[in-house]
């Protein structure tokens, strides 16, 4: 098999066409750099979509994987294992939570959170309390339940009848939420900074009010921290900087630093609704994933890394402001920590993808968040030199787009 020619054309032959990947096929990574089949070097400002929180091949993760790989990979939840219990203890000690449920992805963590919220409400308040309120432009995963809760119909339409009793209001629109929430509401689900929806920060007063409304109506506040969690915004979890504590929090992406793992965190009282047999995951909490995640968590959850995120945000903002002063294509740079978005101005409406493609030609990997935002979600430990080199490449890409 190893002598098979692996090309981009092979994707079109053998893969379901729901992705349209770039021509480039990376084969090796180190820190914030990647090398393709031809040995060309790229700077990675995409981070696997906010997953590679410690860059590529971080020694702490590599050694955890190798060490655990020689011991135990999988057991099933008929048994438990040391890495899962250690990671759960660390998550509980570092957050509001008292109980943890492990799975393999953000969508699965959100699926568990939504099922738990419904079950808790039905068990404690009766069968009528099932309404879930979420936000337009929100994103919570691609299972049928999570994609229905996500506030982008383009992802959920066309698959037949959707799970019922899910309503959406605009993010940061307190009046709309007040008009909709009632004692029938079982949960309000929100990202503490909208990612896919365009890197939209919440207004502090809005978050406070959401928490108060949930309390008034015995609804659970669910924070989807799949993209914002594990240091991405400069706090271990974004809720910590907002002065509001959710009832349920979901985590994935950066949690494993590149190895698939998800977690749902909650309180003992709420967790009680998931009694034996209520929910489960075959691979969830497997020792291999948990060992890698423990190493990632230990590395990120330090003052130096978390403070370093805010420092790196300043490098990006300064560099992007300088580029924009020259080329005048962005209305603003928004976001927090190392989840940043360059928002197109009037002249470049809908053209974020052009910037992404131009960046790729300059050997820089970036992301978009909708048609109007170029998104950066790099390694939390990216070096100053890598940021400077990446921004120099981005400037050349911007010049190409602006000068046509």
Which characteristics define this entry?
single chain; 404 residues; alpha/beta; Aspartate Aminotransferase, domain 1; Aspartate Aminotransferase, domain 2; 2 domains; 7-stranded mixed sheet
Give the helices and strands, then pairings.
Layout: H1 8-14, E1 26-30, E2 33-36, E3 41-44, H2 47-50, H3 59-69, H4 82-94, E4 99-103, H5 106-125, E5 131-135, H6 144-149, H7 153-156, E6 166-169, H8 174-180, E7 185-190, H9 204-216, E8 220-224, H10 239-242, E9 248-251, E10 262-266, H11 268-271, H12 287-300, H13 303-327, E11 330-336, E12 339-344, H14 352-361, E13 364-365, E14 367-368, E15 373-376, H15 384-402
Parallel strand pairs: 3-13, 5-6, 5-7, 7-8, 8-9
Antiparallel strand pairs: 1-2, 2-3, 4-10, 9-10, 11-12, 12-15, 14-15
Pathway: Amino-acid biosynthesis; L-arginine biosynthesis; N(2)-acetyl-L-ornithine from L-glutamate: step 4/4
EC number: 2.6.1.11
Catalytic activity: N(2)-acetyl-L-ornithine + 2-oxoglutarate = N-acetyl-L-glutamate 5-semialdehyde + L-glutamate
Plain-language structure description:
It is built from 15 helices and 15 strands. By secondary structure, the chain is α/β, with parallel strands linked by helices. The chain folds into 2 domains: 8-57 and 303-402, Aspartate Aminotransferase, domain 1, CATH 3.90.1150; 72-300, Type I PLP-dependent aspartate aminotransferase-like (Major domain) (Aspartate Aminotransferase, domain 2, 3-Layer(aba) Sandwich), CATH 3.40.640.
